[in-house]
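User: Okay, second chain of the day. Same drill as before: sequence in, structure tokens out.
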Amino acid sequence: MKLIKTLTFLLPFLAVISIANAQQIKDGETVEVNGIAVTYSVINKEKLTIKDQDFDRYKILASIKNNTGKSFNIRLANSLDLSGINSSKIIELDCVNATGARLTSKKVQVSMKSHLINVTYPTKDKDGKSTTAILPVTAGYYFDEGQVIENDAIFIVPAGEVPKVSVRSLLKN
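Assistant: Same drill. Structure tokens below.
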């Protein structure tokens, strides 16, 4: 019971701290987050009606550039090492007024590039003859100094509003 009371008291503070770490960003603007330049741009805008309500549909592009002076690398220990997938995310852009209608995004995350290696393994073809095949395997993730990575998303907001976007770092220091 005491734990529940403590958590009830602390959770609002943790939420405020999380929101406080986010920076507002506008269309075409670049902000610096922990040495990473983040640019958000609207690529396309359309008007649409969903269930007799008017909305604006924005296709956006999130672009990040590594200006930290160092590269980031994650090596996976084995093929079942899923911890690298979550820690490969670098930046998150959150559209606070997005509706999520029609299974569209409310936020977009930009992740490190995957490092793929080709693994050759023995197999048999349709006739039963021994042969080899190549399978691309993710060995890790990387984000090099000066590298630019982009990701796009679609935000649907109420008609007449522009996306209100905040950006925050997902890198663990």
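Residues 13-19 have pLDDT under 50 and may be disordered.

User: Thanks, on to the next one.
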